[in-house]
Design goal:
Strand content: 15-25%
Shape: globular
Radius of gyration: 23 Å
CATH class of the largest domain: Alpha Beta
Number of strands: 22
CATH architecture of the largest domain: 3-Layer(aba) Sandwich
CATH superfamily of the largest domain: Aldehyde Dehydrogenase, Chain A, domain 1
Helix content: 25-40%
Number of domains: 2
Number of helices: 17
Largest sheet: 7 strands, mixed
Length: 495
C-alpha cells in the first residue's frame, strides 16, 4: 500500500498558495489570507489569498481580454487538442490531485481515486463536443435568393462559483464546457477548499492554456463570490451550492441580465418497494446518504421503505452504517471521513439533537465520532433515525451530513405524494424488481435525476440538475453546452 502520509507531508508546508489571474500567481490586493486546515486533524496545510472585489475586477478584465484576443482565434480543433492535453496531464497527476482534495476537504482517498473515470471522462467528452458545435441552414418564407442560417457563438466571460464538497469534479464541470465553447472563466472556489483548484490552474497552464482564459480568485463568498455574481463584465454565472445562496446570486445577476445556471440543494428520497432485492439494495441505499459523509447535494437522506419490509431493511441499513470505518481520508480503508469544518459539524450535530427532541429514535450513531486519531477532527457518526414523521426537521431540511431518516409507506400513490412534498427536486432513488413499478415511480417523481436499483451514477454525456428549488440549468450533456452558447441568425440576400 502506498505511503500516503509521507506523500501528504511533501505536498503542503503551511505556506501561501497564491491565486491565479491573467497567467500570473499573485496575492490578494488586501494582503489578507485564509487558512486551509485539514478537517481530519486541524493541521495547517497552507494559506490562500483572501480576495475581494478588486481581485474580481482584475480577473474579469483578464478574462475579457483573453476572450476578445488570443482565445478568440483558437479553432474548435485547437480547443479540442488543448482539452485532450489537459486530460493527459490530469491523468498523470491524478494521485496528487486526489491527495490534495483528501487533505483539504476530507473526502476519503478510496472515493477521490475512484473518480478518475468521471473527471477524465468529462474532459474528453468536452473535447469531443468542441468540434461538434454548429449552426443550421434554415429554409425561410421569403421569395428569391434569400438565405438564412445560424451560428453558435460563445456567450463570453463565465463567472463560476463552486462548493467545497468535490473540488476536482466541480471545477471541471464548470471549466470544461467553457473551454469547449470558447468562453473564458473566472472561478471562485469555496474558502473551505481552494487548494486543489489552484493546482488545477497550474496543470492547465502547463498544458498550454493561454493567459486569462482561466482565472482563480480565492476568498469569501460574501466578498469575492458576491462581487463575481454581480459583476457587469460577466456574461454568465454558474453556481453550485445552497439554495439560499443561489437565490442571492439570481438576484445579483439581474443587473446586466447575465445568464444563470444554478445547481442547488436537495432532500432526496430513496424509495424501497416491497419487491426490492434487499441484499443488493441495503448497501446502495446506505451509501446514497453516507458517501462523502453525507456532504453531497444528491444525498438520499429520506429513506422510504415499504411497510412489509421496513423493519428488516432499516435494521440492516443501521448495521451497515455501524460497521463503516471512520477515519482520516489518507487511510485507504477509511469509508467515512470528516465533516468539512467545525461550524458544519456543529450544524449537523444540531440535527442529531433535534431528531430525538421531535420524537425520532436513534437506531445507530447519533453523535460525534471520538477515539484514537479522531479527537482533533470534525467527525460525525453515520446516523440512522427511525420513528420519523414527514413533519420533523430531520425529514424536511437539508442536513449535509451522514444522517438518514427512515419512513415506512403503504402504497405507491402515497409514497409519490410524500416524496414530492418538498421544495427540492434534485434526485431520487427507486429500488424494485418490477419493471412497471420502477417506470411508474421514475416518471412521477419530481427530480432532475432518478436512479433505479442504483445511486450516484453521473456521466459526462448525461444531463444533471434540479427541479423546483434545486435550481435550473444542467451540468453535463448537450444541455449544459447550450448554456454557454448564443445563437446568431444570419440573413443573406443573394439577388
Amino acid at each position: 500500500m502506498k505511503d500516503w502520509k509521507a506523500c501528504a507531508a511533501k505536498l503542503y508546508d503551511g505556506g501561501l498558495r497564491p491565486m491565479f489571474i491573467d497567467g500570473e500567481w499573485c496575492p490578494a490586493r488586501s494582503g489578507e489570507v485564509i487558512e486551509a486546515r485539514n478537517p481530519a486533524d486541524g493541521t495547517l496545510l497552507a494559506t490562500v489569498p483572501k480576495g475581494g472585489a478588486a481581485d474580481i475586477d482584475a480577473a474579469v478584465a483578464a478574462a475579457r481580454r483573453a476572450f476578445e484576443g488570443p482565445w478568440s482565434r483558437f479553432t474548435p480543433f485547437e480547443r479540442q487538442a488543448l482539452l485532450l492535453r489537459i486530460a493527459e496531464r490530469f491523468e498523470a497527476e491524478w494521485e496528487t490531485l486526489c491527495l490534495s482534495d483528501t487533505l483539504d476537504m476530507g473526502m476519503p482517498l478510496q472515493r477521490t481515486l475512484a473518480n478518475s473515470r468521471r473527471v477524465l471522462g468529462m474532459l474528453r467528452y468536452y473535447a469531443g463536443q468542441a468540434v461538434a458545435i454548429h449552426g443550421q441552414t434554415i429554409p425561410n418564407s421569403f421569395p428569391g435568393e434569400i438565405y438564412s442560417s445560424t451560428v453558435r457563438e460563445p456567450v463570453g466571460v463565465v463567472g463560476a462559483i463552486i462548493p467545497w464538497n468535490a473540488p476536482i469534479a466541480g471545477s471541471i464541470w464548470k471549466i470544461g464546457p467553457a473551454l469547449a465553447t470558447g468562453c473564458t472563466v473566472v472561478l471562485k472556489p469555496s474558502e473551505e477548499a481552494s487548494l486543489t483548484v489552484l493546482m488545477i490552474a497550474r496543470i492547465m497552464q502547463e498544458a498550454g492554456l493561454p493567459d486569462g482564459v482561466l482565472n482563480i480568485v480565492t476568498g469569501l463568498g460574501a466578498d469575492a463570490g458576491a462581487a463575481l455574481a454581480a459583476h457587469p463584465g460577466v456574461d454568465k454565472v454558474v453556481f453550485t451550492g445552497s439554495t439560499a445562496t443561489g437565490q442571492s446570486i439570481a438576484r445579483a445577476a439581474t443587473g446586466n441580465l447575465k445568464r444563470v445556471s444554478l445547481e442547488l440543494g436537495g432532500k432526496s428520497p430513496v424509495i424501497v418497494c416491497r419487491d426490492a432485492d434487499i441484499d443488493k439494495a441495503v448497501p446502495v441505499a446506505a451509501m446514497a446518504v453516507f458517501a462523502n459523509s453525507g456532504q453531497v447535494c444528491i444525498a438520499g437522506s429520506r429513506l422510504f421503505v415499504a411497510r412489509e419490509i421496513h423493519d428488516e431493511f432499516v435494521r440492516r441499513v443501521a448495521e451497515f452504517a455501524a460497521n463503516l470505518r471512520i477515519g482520516h481520508g489518507i487511510d485507504e480503508t477509511t469509508e467515512i471521513g470528516p465533516i468539512i469544518s467545525a461550524r458544519q459539524a456543529d450544524r449537523v450535530a444540531g440535527y442529531l439533537t433535534a431528531g430525538p427532541a421531535e420524537g425520532a429514535r436513534v437506531l445507530t450513531g447519533g453523535g460525534r465520532a471520538k477515539g484514537a486519531n479522531l479527537d482533533n477532527g470534525h467527525f460525525i457518526q453515520p446516523t440512522v433515525f427511525g420513528g420519523v414523521t414527514d413533519q420533523m426537521s430531520i425529514a424536511r431540511e437539508e442536513i449535509f451530513g451522514p444522517v438518514v431518516s427512515a419512513l415506512p409507506f403503504d402504497t405507491i400513490d402515497e409514497v409519490v405524494e410524500r416524496a414530492n412534498a418538498t421544495p427540492y427536486g434534485l434526485a431520487a432513488g427507486v429500488f424494485s424488481t418490477h419493471l412497471g413499478t420502477a417506470h411508474k415511480l421514475a416518471h412521477r417523481l419530481k427530480a432532475g435525476s432518478v436512479w433505479v436499483n442504483m445511486y450516484h451514477a453521473i456521466d459526462p454525456a448525461v444531463p444533471f440538475g434540479g427541479m423546483k428549488m434545486s435550481g435550473y440549468g444542467r451540468e453535463g450533456g448537450i444541455e449544459q453546452l447550450e448554456g454557454y452558447l448564443d445563437t446568431k441568425a444570419i440573413w443573406i440576400n443573394a439577388d
